[in-house]
Write a structure and sequence with these properties.
The complex is a heterotrimer of chains A (232), B (223) and C (241). Chain A has one domain. Helices cover 79% and strands 0% of the residues of chain A. Chain A is built from 6 helices and no strands. The longest helix of chain A is centred in the last third of the chain and has 44 residues. Chain B is mostly helical. Chain B is built from 8 helices and no strands. In chain B, α3 packs antiparallel against α5 and α7 packs antiparallel against α8. Chain C has a domain of 143 residues: P-loop containing nucleotide triphosphate hydrolases (Rossmann fold). In chain C, α5 packs parallel to α6. The longest helix of chain C has 16 residues. Chain C starts with a strand and ends in an 11-residue tail after the last helix. The chains are: A mainly alpha (232), B mainly alpha (223), C alpha/beta (241). Chains in contact: A-B, A-C, B-C.
C-alpha cells in the first residue's frame, strides 16, 4: 500500500511539472501559425486529449479481458477508473475540436471536413453507453462482467467506425493519410511534448482514481461483513 | 452434426412460436411502416429530391425495427426462466448464440422483405435489385450478429427495452454508414466496382463481430 | 455420486455459500432445508452448472464440475418453481424441443410415454401457457426427465401448488425416486422434507450445519434441530452447541 502511494506521488509531481512545461511550449515557445493565428494552439490540446481518450479506452479493453479471465475485481476497478478519466478527456477533445473546427472551417460542426471530430464524438457516445450500462445492472459481479464484454465490443467497433467515417465523403477508400497541416520543427516538438505530458497526466489520474476505487471496494466489503455479522 | 441440429432446433422453436402468434411480425411491420410514413411526410415538405434521403431512411427504419426484434427474441427466453432450460442442455453454449442469432436474422430479413416493396412504392424507387439485396443481407448480419449478444446483456438490466438501442447504435454505426453509402451508390446507378469496398467492409465487420460475440456470449449468460 | 468440498460462492462482497461440505451417494434422496437466503437455490444451481463456484471442489459422478460441465449436464434433470417451458409452444412441441437438444434417440415415443406418465396426454396440443400451475409443474418434470438423467435436482418444487396439485406432484416424485435415481430437493417445509427422502440436511448461513437419516427422525426432532441451528432469527448467530 505505501509503495504504490509513492508511485502516485511521484507521478503527481511529474505530471504537474510536465503540464507546466507543456503550457509554456504551447503558448510561448511554439510559433504562431501563419493562417490561423493563436487559435491554432488549441490543436495541441485537442489532439492530446483525443489521444488520451483512445488510450484510456484501450486500457479499459485490457482490464475487461483480464477481468473475464480471472474474475478479479481489481481489474474491474481499473476499467471503471479508466473510463471515467477517458470520458473527461474525450469530452475535452470534442469541445476543443469544435473550437478548432469553427476556426478552420467557420462551422461548429463540419461533418464533411472533419471526420476526426465525428470520431471523437462517437467515442464519447461509446463511453456514455458504457456508463449507462453500469448504472442499470443489478449486482457488482454482473455489472463487472457485462461492462467487460461491452468494453471489448465497443473497442473493436472503433477501427470500423474510424474507417467508415473517413471513407464517407471520398469516392475511393484511403486507409492512411498524411495530415494536411505543415508542422514546423518547433511545432512538432511542442506537439510531441504535449502528448507526453497528457499521457503522464492520464496515468496519474488513473492511479489516483483506482486507489479511490479500491478503498470504496474495501468499505463495501466491511459494510457487508457488518451486515451479516460474520467474517467474509 | 449434433451441434448443428441443436442450433436448428433453437431456430425452429423460435419460428414456430412466432408463427403461432405473429406478435413480433405485426408489431415490427406496423412500426416500420409508421417510421417510413413519418419520414416521407417530414422530408416531403422540405426536400426536393426524395431519392437522396431514401437510403438513410431505409437503414434507420431497419435499425429501429431490428432493435424491436432483438429485444423480443431474448425476452422470450426470460419468461419462465427458459434461458436456464437452454443453459442446462448438454451442448456448447455457443449453440445458443448461433441459434438465437440465426432466428433473429431470419425474422429481420423477412420483415425487410415485406418493407422493401412498400418502400419502393412510397419513394418511387426500384429497390428490388440483386446488389441491393446483398447489401441489405450483409447489413442485417451485422445487426443480428452483435445485436444478439447485446440484447442478452440488455435484457438483464433495469431499463430493458431502452438499454439495447443505447448499447447497440454506437456499435453498428459503421454498418449504417457503409450500408447507406452502398445503397445510395446502387440507386444512383454506380458500377459495382465503385461500391465494392463498402461491401467488403460489411463482410469484415460481420465476420469479426460474429467471432467476438460468439466468444463473449458465455460470459453474459452464465454467472 | 456427488462430492462437495469447501464450496464457496460469492456475489461481489456477499457470500451465499461459505464452505459447504456434502456427500450424496448414488440412489440417495436428500432433502436440504433452510431459511430463505440460506443458499439453497445457489447450491442447487451450482450443481446444475448454471452458476460457477467461486472456490471449492464439486464432483458429480466422478466428473469435475469446472472442467466437464457439458457431460455432467447430460446426467442432470433440473426442476425449479419456474417451468422452463415456452408458453407459446404446445405441450408436445416443448417436449420435442427438449428431446432434440438432449439428443434423445426416439423422440416421438419418448414424448408419448412422458405425456402418459405425467397425465398430460389430453392437453398435448394446447399451448403451455393455457395450463394451470399444477399442470405446468408436471410438464416441467416431464421436461426434466426426458433424457433419463441419473441425478434430479428439485428447487422448492411445491411452490405455488394447491393441495391437489401438490398431491399429484408427490406421487410423481415417488415414482421417480423409486427408479433409484439420486435426488436432491430443497424446501423450507419441514414436513415435506421427511416425506419420502433418505437423508435431510440443514443449510444455514451458507453452510451445512446438520445432517441425519430420516428413518430415525421424527418431525419434532427435526423441528428442534432446525430451531437450534437456525435460531429464532433475531440475532442471526449460530446457537451455542
Amino acid at each position: 500500500m505505501s509503495r504504490s502511494f509513492r508511485i502516485e506521488d511521484l507521478l503527481t509531481w511529474l505530471s504537474g511539472l510536465s503540464i507546466i512545461v507543456a503550457l509554456y511550449l504551447v503558448f510561448v515557445y511554439a510559433p504562431t501559425e501563419a493562417t490561423m493565428g493563436h487559435v491554432q494552439r488549441i490543436f495541441y490540446f485537442h489532439v492530446s486529449s483525443a489521444w488520451v481518450g483512445f488510450l484510456a479506452f484501450f486500457v479499459t479493453l485490457i482490464a475487461g479481458v483480464a477481468y473475464l479471465r480471472g474474475g478479479n475485481r481489481a481489474w474491474d476497478i481499473l476499467a471503471l477508473s479508466s473510463v471515467e478519466i477517458g470520458i473527461t478527456f474525450t469530452a475535452m477533445a470534442v469541445i476543443t475540436g469544435s473550437i478548432w473546427a469553427k476556426a478552420t472551417w467557420n462551422a461548429w460542426w463540419p461533418w464533411q471536413q472533419e471526420p476526426r471530430l465525428v470520431l471523437v464524438t462517437i467515442l464519447l457516445l461509446l463511453y456514455l453507453s458504457y456508463l449507462v450500462l453500469r448504472a442499470f445492472v443489478e449486482g457488482e459481479e454482473r455489472t463487472a462482467r457485462f461492462a467487460a464484454v461491452y468494453g471489448i465490443v465497443a473497442f473493436v467497433s472503433v477501427p470500423f467506425t474510424f474507417m467508415s467515417v473517413r471513407w464517407w465523403q471520398r469516392l475511393h477508400p484511403v486507409i492512411f493519410e498524411s495530415e494536411g497541416m505543415h508542422l514546423a520543427p518547433a511545432m512538432l516538438a511542442t506537439f510531441l511534448f504535449s502528448l507526453l505530458a497528457f499521457t503522464i497526466l492520464y496515468f496519474t489520474l488513473l492511479l489516483h482514481r483506482r486507489r479511490l476505487g479500491k478503498l470504496a471496494d474495501q468499505v463495501d466489503g466491511l459494510k457487508e461483513r457488518l451486515r451479516t455479522g460474520e467474517g467474509g | 452434426m449434433s451441434y448443428l441440429s441443436k442450433v436448428l432446433a433453437i431456430v425452429w422453436k423460435d419460428v414456430v412460436a412466432e408463427l403461432r402468434t405473429k406478435e413480433m411480425f405485426s408489431s415490427m411491420l406496423v412500426f416500420a411502416l409508421l417510421v417510413i410514413v413519418i419520414f416521407n411526410f417530414s422530408f416531403d415538405l422540405r426536400v426536393e429530391n426524395i431519392a437522396q434521403v431514401a437510403p438513410g431512411v431505409l437503414w434507420v427504419t431497419f435499425a429501429f425495427a431490428s432493435t424491436l426484434e432483438l429485444n423480443r427474441s431474448l425476452a422470450l427466453e426470460m419468461e419462465n426462466d427458459c434461458l436456464d432450460g437452454l443453459l442446462l442442455a448438454p451442448m456448447d453454449r455457443s449453440a445458443i448464440y448461433f441459434g438465437k442469432m440465426l432466428g433473429n436474422l431470419i425474422f429481420i430479413c423477412t420483415i425487410e422483405a415485406l418493407i422493401l416493396p412498400i418502400f419502393s412504392v412510397l419513394f418511387d424507387l426500384n429497390l428490388i435489385q440483386p446488389s441491393l439485396l446483398l447489401t441489405i443481407f450483409l447489413g442485417t448480419v451485422g445487426f443480428a450478429g452483435v445485436g444478439t449478444l447485446l440484447s442478452a446483456i440488455a435484457v438483464n438490466t433495469r431499463a430493458r427495452e431502452v438499454m439495447l438501442p443505447v448499447l447497440l447504435f454506437p456499435i453498428i454505426l459503421p454498418v449504417v454508414i457503409a450500408a447507406t453509402k452502398a445503397t445510395g451508390g446502387i440507386l444512383d446507378g454506380l458500377p459495382l466496382g465503385d461500391i465494392a469496398h463498402w461491401l467488403r467492409f460489411l463482410v469484415a465487420f460481420d465476420i469479426i463481430f460474429l467471432v467476438v460475440s460468439y466468444m463473449t456470449f458465455d460470459f453474459v449468460v452464465q454467472g | 455420486m456427488i462430492q462437495i468440498q469447501d464450496l464457496v460462492k460469492s456475489f461481489g462482497h456477499s457470500y451465499a455459500l461459505q464452505g459447504v461440505d456434502l456427500e450424496v451417494s448414488r440412489g440417495q434422496f436428500l432433502t436440504v432445508v433452510g431459511p430463505n437466503g440460506a443458499g439453497k437455490t445457489t447450491l442447487l444451481r451450482i450443481l446444475a452448472t448454471l452458476l460457477r463456484p467461486t472456490s471449492g471442489l464439486v464432483r458429480i459422478d466422478g466428473l469435475d464440475l469446472s472442467s466437464r460441465s457439458a457431460e455432467i449436464r447430460r446426467r442432470i434433470g433440473f426442476v425449479s418453481h419456474q417451468s422452463l417451458t415456452y408458453g407459446k409452444l404446445t405441450v408436445e412441441e416443448n417436449l420435442s424441443f427438449y428431446a432434440r437438444i438432449y439428443d434423445v434417440p426416439t423422440i416421438e415415443e419418448r414424448v408419448d410415454k412422458l405425456l402418459d406418465l405425467v397425465g398430460l396426454q389430453a392437453r398435448r396440443h394446447d399451448p403451455a401457457r393455457t395450463l394451470s400451475r399444477g399442470m405446468q409443474q408436471r410438464l416441467s418434470i416431464a421436461r426434466a426427465i426426458i433424457h433419463q438423467p441419473s441425478l434430479m435436482l428439485l428447487d422448492e418444487p411445491y411452490t405455488g401448488l394447491d393441495q391437489q396439485a401438490a398431491d399429484m406432484l408427490r406421487q410423481l416424485l415417488q415414482t421417480i425416486a423409486a427408479e433409484s435415481r439420486t435426488v436432491v430437493m430443497t424446501t423450507h417445509n419441514l414436513q415435506r422434507a421427511l416425506e419420502f427422502c433418505d437423508t435431510v440436511a440443514i443449510l444455514a448461513k451458507g453452510r451445512i450445519v446438520y445432517q441425519a437419516e430420516v428413518a430415525s427422525l421424527t418431525l419434532e426432532d427435526l423441528r428442534q434441530a432446525y430451531w437450534h441451528y437456525v435460531g429464532n432469527g433475531s440475532t442471526g448467530k449460530r446457537a451455542e452447541t
